[in-house]
Structures are given as C-alpha cells and as structure tokens.
Amino acid sequence: KHTGLISPNLVFDGANENPKITYKIKSGKEFVDTDTKGQLRMLRPGTAKVEVTVGKGKAGYYDLETKTFDITVIRASRTLSVANINRVYSPNGSIKPEPKFNNGSADVDADGVSYSVMEGDKVVSLDGNGQLKMLGAGTAKVEAIYPGNENYNKAEYTFEITIGKGTQPSFTIN
C-alpha cells in the first residue's frame, strides 16, 4: 500500500520566507490525505483535488493565498527477479523458486507469483497447483509472473532451470 509523503513544489514570488502552509483535500480523500503533521500522504492510485493555503510569512506581512491543484497517484512498478536454478534429477522432484522484488536497498519475498514454462517442457512442468516439477535432464526457460494489484503493475522475469542427470540407483541380481 502506498503510504509515502508527497511534497509539492511550491514556488513563491517575493521574499515570503517560511510561510505557514496548510492542505485541505477537496475530493479524492481515498487517494490522498494529510497526516498528523499536516503533510500530504498518498494512499492508493487515483486523483485528488487539494487546496493549499499559504499563511503569513516570517514577519506576518503577507495575506493568505489559496490555490487548488490535482495530485495523481499512479500504480508503482516493481522489479521482479528469480535466481537461475541448478538441480540433479530425482523422480517426482519439485522445484521451489524464490522470487524477489527489489525495493532499492533490499530484496523482499514476492508473494502471488505464478510460473509458465516457455521452453523445455520435457525438463519441467507445472502440476495442478502451479508448482514446478522435474520431468528429466536438460534446461528450461521459465517465466515468473506477478499479476499486479491495485497498487502495483504487473511484473515478469524469465529465468532458467537446469536439471542434471541423476545417479542411477544401485541394484543387485539375486
């Protein structure tokens, strides 16, 4: 959910230093509101009409001035990534990718990601629950898909799964 602060760029004519600024949401309170300090805060994508009032300046020499403007909050994009996977074949083996979103300074787990086998459907497949299963040795290209939601755009990432030949189980003849 968007909860970042919004800092409109207000340009003043003259020398009105450190004016008192207040914001009032005229419409679109579900998209933008003010926090306890009176700062604008985005809530979710949509457009809000905001009234800004600039109060008296440092020495109290200026009249109040009010203007109205629109703020549009848009859906954010996320960078999805999945590390390439190398495994050795085992019958009925499953593969559990670890998709991540890069949030600038750190990677966070990406929930709600589904997969599609782009190439190599003899190497891996999807079971009835959308989980990746090993079928044989080789390399497959798989697409991870985050469908997006109210706040974030769709994100996709293609990665490789390489399955090496497994060791044949030993056997004896009686």
> What structural category characterises the helix and strand content?
mainly beta
Mean pLDDT: 86
**What is the count of DSSP helices, taking H or I runs of 4+ residues?**
0
User: Order of SSEs, N→C?
Assistant: EEEEEEEEEEEEEEEE
Strand order of the largest sheet: 8-16-15-12
Shape: rod-shaped
Strand content: over 45%
Largest sheet: 4 strands, mixed
Number of β-strand runs = 16
Task: Indicate the percent of residues in helices.
Answer: under 10%
List low-confidence stretches: none
Radius of gyration: 27 Å
End-to-end Cα distance, whole Å, is 66 Å
Description of the structure:
The protein is built from no helices and 16 strands. The mean pLDDT is 86. The protein is mainly beta. A hairpin with a 5-residue loop joins strand 3 and strand 4. The protein has a four-stranded mixed beta sheet, with no helix packed on it. It has a three-stranded antiparallel beta sheet with strand order 1-4-3, with no helix packed on it. The termini are far apart.
